[in-house]
Each structure stands twice: as C-alpha cells, then as structure tokens.
Amino acid sequence: MGGAMYDALVDLLNGKTLIFEFDPSLGYSQFDASAGSITLGDYESNSIFHEMFHVYQWYNETPQTIGGVALNHEMEAWYAQYRYVSKLPEYQEGTKWHTLYNKHPIGYYISRIDNHLTPQGQFKNNSNYELFGNYLINYVKSAFELSATYRKYPFDYNRYGNENFTNFVQLSKGC
User: Fold this and answer.
1) Distance (Å, rounded) from C-alpha 146 to C-alpha 128?
2) pTM for the full predicted model
3) What is the CB-side half-sphere exposure of residue 105 using CA atoms within 13 A?
4) From CA 37, how far away is CA 17, in angstroms rounded?
C-alpha cells in the first residue's frame, strides 16, 4: 500500500513540493494542508505513512467537503496505519505500537475494524453496510471523542460505514 500511495501522490501533487520538517519535541506528527508540509515528531516509517495518507485524503476531497471530515479522515488514516505497522517488526508484543492497538481505546477499536473488512477494505461475510456504520459511530468515533484533541474534529455523518474508507480501498488494491 505504501508504494501505491507514493505513486498516487506523485500524480496528485503534479510537480508541487511537499515539505517535511522534523521536530521531535512536538510529540506527534501532523500534516498542514495550508503550508503543504508534514511535521514529524518521530522518524518511524508508520508515522510518515500516516501523515502521507492525510495528504492523499486531502487531495481527494473538494473545497466543499474538506472542512467537515477531519474525524472521518482520522479513522481511515489510523486504520491504514494499523494495517501498515502491524506487518512491521515494531509491532511485536510489548512494543508501543502493539500496546497502542491492543490497549488504548482508539487503537483497540481501530484494530477491530479487521472483524468487518478484508485487507482490501471489502466487507467480510459477517458484516455489512449498516453493521459497520454502527460500529464506526458507536465504538470508533466514541473512542476518538475521549481524546481532548479529536473530540473537536468535525465528523460527517453523511459518510456512513465503508464510505469512510474509499482512499484505503483505492490504495490497497492488489495488496
């Protein structure tokens, strides 16, 4: 998926520059669309992947939709990052990433999206549009809202269920 995202970003950026800044004192990483920059609080590949996923999301929105989907985007980016990092050595028992996706409320509910979706973002036989939509709102969204940061993010209820994962589906084709 990382290679597909890189190739798609090269096309979407169409010669524009994406600025990378490093600030370990920040404690987190972030994409700033207005500056066209990613500030990294750590140097791990999955953090870079997460922020580049946000760039991909941003370029696939319209000016009318981009302002109201921040939490929808976080859910999708967190899941894409989970799928990415769970295949890496830094996702072994006892590591910060394994702990995040198994003990922290946001990570726990993000990782359990696997109960509903295949690695390509299609419904598993035991799930469907309504069941998955309810799971995202009642569990994943609720977990994000426990965070002082994320509870301020707007959520578009018109994007229901797997409509929140269109970027993930596009990038995971062939994975």
Assistant:
1) 26
2) 0.94
3) 12
4) 9
